């Protein structure tokens, strides 16, 4: 969090210590600045200036500025794609991170940089107020290997640090002028495969002196990685954390279908996953678990699939929950074909029909409008061309044998 710069031999003076707010909550920042002799108020002002005004080099008062500085390396935006919608412009932007961090890997060492992607999705509120949902990445690539996901083609390159995750908010807000209301962890990577950094990043994103995004407005979307789920549930017992949104990518009515498109299901079958979901500490809140279901023609879109899915979700419906209230919501997502996809997008009629079937079975369900398909910024279409051509690591799943190394491409469950 705090780094001591090398001595400036030319001047005979040590370089000032730099403090990076992207990697710290305000309390941690104030403490670190305090260790260097900066009082709490000016330290807090500098932290706020960094996050609220986008001042990357906010000065500390007087001579202290010669001793310590606020400084952050926000990854530069190197590419952008835009798509116009009635609500405004969807913008996918690519930030470039320095290359290999693991010299032991010849494959990784051969790339001088890694690109990560975030997507700004415009929204217009009830009173006509414009804002954005920001979809952030948590990893470069992904190890989960879902068979419908573009990102999966990359394999996992590496996990992002908390600062790199928060840096996506900073770039979106201060370099691309977004008014970020919601944050969804639905970009590249499986957030619960990088759970500590994601928890750290959420702590910073919700900081009242920092980005101040309400916990209610943040959603972590996961395929249900068991160890990460347990860790997140533990974190959600802490004050304020129960308001965090959780979205589970189900995508299948039974184990056979799910295992065929999502390797994670071989490690954590659906019954076990349901127990994990039931342990999310939403008791006493009005939050609902969101279940994502990517509707793929010929894979999971039959009427009997709708009935089976409804049975699976029964404990989270009004008729199956203890208090007679819906505890879950199904989000039906029309499949966005990845590059070289074996499946087409579903017909509009098929999506509406499936929605009707699950609703008839008593499931609280909505369909998600598809945004960003043209710019490959939609669900499952995030991925970096240069990296995707390479296969860096074998796929990895909790507890089970790794599935065979992936050679074909994918597209993803993820769209806010
Ligand atoms: S759908 Fe999500 S978890 Fe699955 S491979 Fe894609 S990014 Fe990873």
Give a short summary of the structure.
It contains twelve helices and 17 strands. With 416 residues, the protein is of the alpha/beta class. It has two domains: 2-70, no CATH class; 77-388, TIM Barrel.
Note the main sheet. Answer: 10 strands, mixed
CATH-defined topology of the largest domain: TIM Barrel
Question: Would you count the extended β strands for me?
Answer: 17
The radius of gyration computed from the alpha-carbon positions, rounded to a whole number of angstroms, is: 22 Å
Strand content: 15-25%
Distance between the termini: 31 Å
Note the total helix count.
Answer: 12
CATH architecture of the largest domain: Alpha-Beta Barrel
When the domains are counted, the total is: 2
Structural class of the helix and strand makeup?
A: alpha/beta
Strand order of the largest sheet: 6-7-8-9-12-13-14-15-16-17
Features:
416 residues, alpha/beta, TIM Barrel, 10-stranded mixed sheet, 3-stranded mixed sheet, 12 helices, 17 strands, 27% helix, disordered N terminus, binds iron/sulfur cluster
């Amino acid at each position: 969090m705090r780094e001591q710069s090398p001595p400036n031999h030319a001047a005979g003076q040590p370089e000032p210590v730099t403090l990076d707010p992207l990697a710290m909550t305000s309390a941690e920042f104030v403490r670190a600045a305090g260790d260097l002799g900066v009082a709490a108020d000016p330290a807090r002002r500098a932290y706020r200036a960094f996050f609220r005004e986008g001042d990357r080099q906010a000065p500390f008062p007087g001579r202290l500025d010669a001793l310590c500085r606020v400084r952050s390396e926000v990854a530069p935006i190197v590419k952008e794609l835009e798509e116009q919608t009635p609500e405004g412009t969807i913008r996918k932007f690519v930030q470039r991170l320095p290359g290999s961090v693991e010299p032991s890997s010849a494959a990784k060492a051969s790339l001088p940089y890694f690109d990560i992607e975030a997507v700004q999705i415009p929204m217009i509120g009830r009173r006509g107020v414009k804002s954005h949902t920001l979809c952030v990445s948590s990893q470069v690539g992904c190890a989960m290997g879902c068979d419908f996901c573009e990102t999966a083609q990359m394999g996992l390159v590496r996990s992002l640090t908390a600062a790199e995750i928060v840096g996506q908010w900073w770039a979106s807000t201060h370099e691309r002028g977004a008014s970020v209301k919601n944050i969804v962890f639905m970009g590249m990577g499986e957030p619960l495969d990088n759970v500590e950094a994601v928890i750290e990043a959420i702590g910073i994103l919700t900081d009242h002196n920092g980005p101040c995004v309400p916990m209610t407005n943040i959603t972590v979307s996961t395929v249900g990685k068991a160890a990460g789920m347990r860790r997140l549930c533990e974190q959600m017992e802490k004050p304020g954390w129960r308001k965090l949104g959780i979205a589970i990518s189900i995508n299948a009515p039974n184990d056979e279908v799910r295992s065929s498109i999502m390797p994670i299901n071989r490690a954590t079958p659906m019954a076990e996953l349901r127990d994990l979901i039931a342990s999310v500490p939403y008791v006493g809140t009005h939050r609902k678990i969101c279940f994502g279901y990517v509707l793929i023609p010929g894979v999971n879109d039959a009427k009997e699939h709708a009935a089976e899915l409804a049975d699976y979700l029964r404990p989270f419906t009004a008729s199956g929950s203890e208090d007679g209230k819906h505890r879950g919501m199904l989000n039906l997502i029309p499949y966005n074909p990845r590059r070289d996809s074996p499946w087409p997008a579903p017909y509009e009629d098929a999506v509406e029909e499936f929605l009707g079937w699950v609703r008839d079975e008593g499931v609280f369900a909505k369909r998600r409008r598809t945004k960003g398909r043209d710019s490959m910024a939609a669900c499952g279409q995030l991925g970096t061309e240069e990296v995707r051509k390479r296969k860096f690591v074998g796929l990895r799943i909790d507890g089970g044998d790794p599935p065979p190394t992936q050679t074909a491409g994918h597209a993803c469950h993820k769209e806010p």
